[in-house]
C-alpha cells in the first residue's frame, strides 16, 4: 500500500532528529540498532501526550518512549482505566531516566465530562512544561459494534458516542495541547494520529471504525495544511496482536471477514505491538515523512 501525502511547507525538524543525549552503551548512531541490550539514545527534554496508554499499542509505545525522553521531560498518559494507567506510570518512573515526570489522567473521553477533565489537565500541565519539543500521539480508539451491518446502525446515541470518543476527543485534545504548549522559539510540535488501513479501504460490518479512521486522517491532514510549523503524521500500525484483533476475528458480523482475521492469527501474520511502536519511533527520529502523510507499517 502506497503513501498518501498532504502537500505543504515542511515544518521545522524536531530536535530529537538532530540533537540526542547519548544513552549508556550507545554510539553516535541511533541506539535501537546497536544490538541486543543497547539502550536508545535519549531525546532532549520533551513534552509528550499519549492517549490510550493503558494497554495494547499505547502501553507498548509508552514503554519504548520513556527511556528515550531526556532529563526534565514530561510524559502525560491518558486512558479510561485508572488502575492499569497508574501501574504503568509506576513502572515507567522506575525504569526511565532520572528526571522524567509521568502524569496520569484517567478519563472517559466519549463523555463531555471526561473530555473536559482531560482538556483541563493538559491546560494545567503543558504551559509549565520544559523547553523542548512537544509530541502528541492520538492512539485512543475503539471498534464499535462490529456485529452490526450498515443497515443495523439506527441508534443516534450509539453513533454519536462512537464519534465523540474516536473523532471529537482526538480533535479537542490535540487543539488543547497545541494551544496550551504554545509556539516557543526553537521548540518543534509534532502530532501523530494512530490510523489504519481502514481509513483508506472499506470493511464489511466496520462502518463506524472505517468512517472514524477516515475522518481522523482527513482532520489531521487539514491540520498539516493550516499549521505548517506543526509536523503531522497519520501512522497505520498494521494488524496488531491485541484485544481489538481478537474482537475482529470473533465478533465481526460478516463470516468472510471473520475468516480473514482468523487466518491472520493462524498464519502468524499479526504484528507485536512493540515491533510496530519501534517503527513509529524510527519514523519520528528520521523525520523524512511529508507532514500530513498516511504511512503504513509495511511502508517503513
Write a structural description.
Strands 3-2-1-4-5-6-7 form a 7-stranded parallel sheet, with helices on both faces. It is globular and about 50 Å long. Helices cover 41% and strands 13% of the residues. It has helices at residues 15-18, 56-65, 82-95, 112-125, 156-181, 207-226, 243-251, 255-266, 273-286, and strands at residues 47-51, 74-79, 101-106, 134-138, 189-194, 230-236, 293-296. The chain has 300 residues and is of the alpha/beta class. The N and C termini lie close together (11 Å). Helix 6 links the parallel strand 5 and strand 6. The model is unreliable at 1-10 and 22-37 (pLDDT under 50). Helix 2 packs across helix 9 (273-286) and helix 5 runs parallel beside helix 6 (207-226). The longest helix is centred in the middle third of the chain and has 26 residues, at 156-181. The protein is built from 9 helices and 7 strands; from the N terminus they run αβαβαβαβαβαβαααβ.
Strand content: 5-15%
| Overall helicity | 40-55%
Number of helices: 9
Shape: globular
How many strands, what sense, and barrel or not for the largest sheet?
7 strands, parallel
Low-confidence stretches: 1-10, 22-37
Give me some keywords for this one.
300 residues; seven-stranded parallel β-sheet; disordered N terminus
Short description:
The chain has 300 residues and is of the alpha/beta class. The chain has helices at residues 15-18, 56-65, 82-95, 112-125, 156-181, 207-226, 243-251, 255-266, 273-286; strands at residues 47-51, 74-79, 101-106, 134-138, 189-194, 230-236, 293-296. The protein contains 9 helices and 7 strands.
Amino acid at each position: 500500500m502506497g503513501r498518501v501525502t498532504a502537500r505543504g511547507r515542511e515544518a521545522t525538524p524536531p530536535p530529537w532528529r538532530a540533537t540526542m543525549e547519548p544513552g549508556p552503551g550507545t554510539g553516535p548512531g541511533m541506539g535501537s540498532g546497536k544490538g541486543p541490550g543497547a539502550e536508545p539514545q535519549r531525546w532532549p527534554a520533551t513534552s509528550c501526550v499519549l492517549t490510550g496508554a493503558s494497554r495494547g499499542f499505547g502501553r507498548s509505545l509508552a514503554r519504548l518512549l520513556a527511556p528515550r525522553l531526556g532529563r526534565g521531560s514530561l510524559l502525560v498518559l491518558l486512558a479510561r482505566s485508572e488502575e492499569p494507567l497508574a501501574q504503568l506510570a509506576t513502572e515507567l518512573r522506575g525504569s526511565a531516566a532520572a528526571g522524567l515526570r509521568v502524569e496520569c489522567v484517567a478519563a472517559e473521553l466519549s463523555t463531555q465530562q471526561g473530555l473536559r477533565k482531560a482538556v483541563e489537565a493538559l491546560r494545567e500541565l503543558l504551559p509549565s512544561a520544559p523547553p523542548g519539543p512537544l509530541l502528541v500521539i492520538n492512539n485512543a480508539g475503539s471498534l464499535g459494534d462490529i456485529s452490526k451491518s450498515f443497515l443495523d446502525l439506527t441508534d443516534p446515541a450509539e453513533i454519536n458516542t462512537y464519534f465523540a470518543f474516536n473523532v471529537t476527543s482526538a480533535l479537542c485534545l490535540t487543539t488543547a495541547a497545541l494551544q496550551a504548549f504554545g509556539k516557543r522559539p526553537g521548540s518543534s510540535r509534532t502530532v501523530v494520529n494512530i490510523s489504519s488501513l481502514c481509513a483508506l479501504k472499506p470493511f464489511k460490518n466496520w462502518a463506524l471504525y472505517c468512517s472514524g479512521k477516515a475522518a481522523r486522517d482527513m482532520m489531521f491532514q487539514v491540520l498539516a495544511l493550516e499549521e505548517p510549523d506543526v509536523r503531522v503524521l497519520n501512522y497505520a500500525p498494521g494488524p496488531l496482536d491485541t484485544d481489538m484483533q481478537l474482537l475482529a476475528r470473533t465478533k465481526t458480523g460478516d463470516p468472510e471477514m471473520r475468516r480473514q482475521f482468523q487466518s491472520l492469527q493462524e498464519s502468524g501474520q499479526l504484528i507485536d505491538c512493540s515491533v510496530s511502536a519501534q517503527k513509529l519511533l524510527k519514523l519520528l527520529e528520521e523525520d523524512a515523512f511529508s507532514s500530513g502523510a498516511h504511512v503504513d507499517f509495511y511502508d517503513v
